[in-house]
User: Which sequence fits this backbone?
């Protein structure tokens, strides 16, 4: 068996209503002055209020930074750092979707270490230390609460990542109640995102692919596949919401240690250039990338097919089960009401060559893909998705 390293968030709390008790879960770790990183939409909806009340009632001084946008920019990160520095915070809380959690991770790192942001891009370059950090996801998709990665938009379009185990928070608080208000479209896109994490982690060519990640990926697909349609059709279904949140976290643990590959590499330029939400960007290219990978990954996809879609256990032939798995994923996106083609999100055919060129910049992901991918391959995939 190959050697491997498996890192994850040391403390996980899964409980309906946990956000209303947030101070009980984080104060001993974060201290008495925290930077609370979130987005304007959650502030407007009042979703943050119970958590903020819990902190206030426990005499925790809170500096709220509520300016995180989708695909957060480097300037947003630096404004959050400045807010935390001015307030003299002793810890950081990220509250929201993947964007808020990513900003919180980097804010905690830069506030704690004083490192220059340009020195930490890439894998393993952050030295730390960081400030104590708690993450509270409000979507079931990114799994960011258990991953060491933070993705930031630099300049107009380029996405850069910081990947370091230092980014893993001290505690993740998973409260299914926070996801009850998610609109169907966001529930669907983030749910597909989580499924992509599990699929790519399982089939990753990365040398650190390991038995724990594979086990977690399969459990994640079982939860996500069985509950995504129920969560989309009935947003108040607490059981389905809880299963999606847990499945997203398990998929996050899997890909945090067995990294994702070409689906994400091709999704990032779609989000960076056309501001398509990350989960939807993944969904748009998912089946097309998996078809490209079939020649090298059919056995792996066949192994997990029935985890997501139990009826596929009846398909005994590997090529048949693999192909059926890919078609089921495409059909699932259609049933969930997601846009199916790149043209449906405002991408023109003339834009495809630039997308392909930009995807090649994501070599840290492409090296994990089961099948090697060149720029002409990426263009072919984008064309089939268009």
Assistant:
């Amino acid at each position: 068996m190959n050697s491997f390293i498996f890192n994850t968030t040391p403390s996980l709390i899964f409980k309906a209503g946990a956000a209303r008790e947030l101070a009980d879960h984080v104060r001993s770790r974060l201290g008495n002055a925290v930077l609370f990183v979130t987005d304007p939409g959650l502030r407007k909806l009042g979703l943050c209020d119970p958590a903020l009340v819990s902190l206030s009632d426990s005499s925790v001084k809170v500096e709220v930074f509520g300016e995180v946008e989708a695909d957060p920019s480097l300037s947003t990160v630096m404004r959050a750092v400045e807010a935390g520095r001015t307030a003299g915070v002793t810890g950081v809380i990220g509250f929201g979707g993947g964007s808020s959690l990513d900003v919180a991770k980097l804010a905690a790192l830069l506030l704690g270490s004083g490192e220059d942001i340009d020195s930490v891009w890439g894998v393993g370059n952050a030295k730390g230390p960081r400030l104590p950090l708690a993450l509270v996801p409000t979507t079931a998709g990114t799994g960011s609460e258990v991953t060491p990665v933070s993705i930031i938009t630099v300049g107009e379009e380029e996405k850069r990542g910081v990947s370091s185990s230092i980014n893993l928070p001290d505690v993740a608080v998973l409260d299914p109640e926070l996801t009850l208000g998610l609109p169907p479209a966001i529930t669907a896109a983030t749910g597909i995102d989580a499924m992509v994490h599990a699929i790519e982690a399982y089939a990753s060519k990365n040398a650190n692919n390991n038995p724990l990640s594979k086990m977690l990926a399969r459990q994640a697909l079982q939860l996500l596949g069985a509950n995504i349609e129920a969560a989309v059709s009935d947003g108040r279904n607490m059981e389905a919401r809880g299963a999606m949140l847990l499945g997203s976290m398990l998929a996050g643990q899997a890909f945090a240690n067995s990294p994702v590959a070409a689906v994400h590499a091709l999704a990032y330029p779609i989000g960076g250039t056309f501001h398509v939400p990350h989960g939807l960007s993944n969904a748009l290219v998912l089946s097309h990338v998996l078809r490209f990978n079939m020649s090298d990954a059919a056995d792996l996809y066949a192994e997990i097919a029935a985890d997501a879609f139990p009826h596929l256990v009846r398909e005994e032939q590997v090529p048949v089960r693999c192909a059926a798995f890919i078609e089921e994923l495409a059909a699932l996106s259609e049933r969930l009401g997601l846009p199916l083609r790149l043209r449906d999100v405002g991408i023109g055919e003339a834009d495809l060559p630039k997308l392909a060129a930009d995807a090649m910049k994501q070599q840290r992901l492409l090296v994990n893909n089961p099948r090697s991918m060149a720029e002409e391959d990426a263009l072919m995939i984008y064309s089939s998705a268009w």
